[in-house]
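Researcher: Before we compare anything, I want clean individual predictions. No alignment, no superposition, just each chain on its own. First chain goes here; please echo the sequence and then give the structure tokens.
Model: Echoing the first chain and its structure:
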Amino acid sequence: MFGEYGASLTDLRLIEYDAENMQAILRCSHKALPLVRASIPCVTKIGKNPAAIHIQVISGTLKSLRRKLARIDEDG
């Protein structure tokens, strides 16, 4: 969506993937967060399989992110 230059600004990295719950934790530069948030819903295929990616939680640190995810899991 934003080309190679835009992708290089994001510093996007996969931190963790839970295959059972189909949840991933991604890390990106805080300056590139709007760019990443705009790009993620544009993913419609992974390989040859259709895909839809939804952002559940955003946080400034992994510690608080995991806390927020735990609360979501508790609530249902």
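Researcher: Okay. Second chain, same rules.
Model: Second chain and its structure:
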Amino acid sequence: MAICNNCGRQLHKDEKAIYKRLINRAATEDELLCKLCLASKLAVTETVIEEKIKHFRDIGCTLFM
């Protein structure tokens, strides 16, 4: 299981997928960030990240399957 590169928390599959969708689709597991750290990096709330996850899942993005 992948861990957040910033805080060390275990990542869920949606967290890996949203990082790859928003930052770098070719990111390796040692680059990934959890939702909270990603939100901080992008200067948005964690709710915005969760909304993006739902949006990409709803439109059928294969990273969220």
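Researcher: What stands out in the second chain?
Model: Residues 13-64 form one domain. Additionally, The chain has one domain: 13-64.
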